[in-house]
């Protein structure tokens, strides 16, 4: 099994907060036992850990794990009671005509053969995501998304339903890797085959805020953009500045 380096953001006797790289699942995949997941990577160094919440395999960013069963129970209650503040940044296709929006669409998890979550007003569970535009980048945008409920794939489904699918989303978008030649038609790669700027889901868990399970004081952590996310955003920003100068 290939190993990846995982950065620790914070650690004490009860919590381990990490910056999860893309490409690693939070838990074992029952269909692919050899697939990379967190616990075999982290536990040899940090001891037994409990998964409290999950990020999609190809989502990067802040993730908290419990270091004992008591903490696991306390944190589970916080997530269930919506005491945890989660902020995601998403690179999406399209440019909203609004600056802020609250998306309220009922979602049904595992709704088809591909195990996708679907908007389902009749059988779905109430689901709410607050969205804010951070930057408009031509045909793309950088959005901030705050889920107020915790459905599987909630942000991805809500953004796609609003008309702004996350870049490189194979389930709710076109899934196509993002190439620099898409921004620069005259671009010619140095190698025979062009490597994508972004070859995975353009979603990043930027911030996480919760109460410490022992003394209840509020704590917050953040994670920087990964290299591929940052490079894609930089190129989009660069092109947008060039367009702005031409328009002026």
Write structural notes for this entry.
There is one protein chain. The chain has 248 residues and is α+β, with helices and mostly antiparallel strands. The protein has one domain (7-247): Pseudouridine synthase (2-Layer Sandwich), CATH 3.30.2350.10. It contains five helices and twelve strands. It has helices at residues 38-46, 69-80, 154-161, 180-183, 227-247; strands spanning 7-11, 15-20, 50-51, 60-66, 85-93, 100-104, 107-108, 118-119, 128-137, 140-147, 203-211, 218-222. Strands 1, 2, 3, 4, 5, 6, 9, 10, 11 and 12 form a ten-stranded mixed beta sheet that branches. A hairpin with a 2-residue loop joins strand 9 and strand 10. The longest helix is centred in the last third of the chain and has 21 residues, at 227-247. The chain is globular, with a radius of gyration of 19 Å. The mean pLDDT is 92.
* Largest sheet report: 10 strands, mixed
Q: Specify the number of helices.
A: 5
Instruction: Please give the radius of gyration in angstroms.
Output: 19 Å
CATH homologous superfamily name?
Pseudouridine synthase
Tell me the span between the first and last alpha carbons.
53 Å
The CATH C-level name is: Alpha Beta
Number of domains: 1
Gross morphology is globular
What are the low-pLDDT stretches, counting only 5+ consecutive residues below 50?
Answer: none
How many strand segments?
12
Following the backbone from N to C, one meets helices and strands in this order, namely EEHEEHEEEEEEHHEEH
CATH-defined topology: Pseudouridine synthase
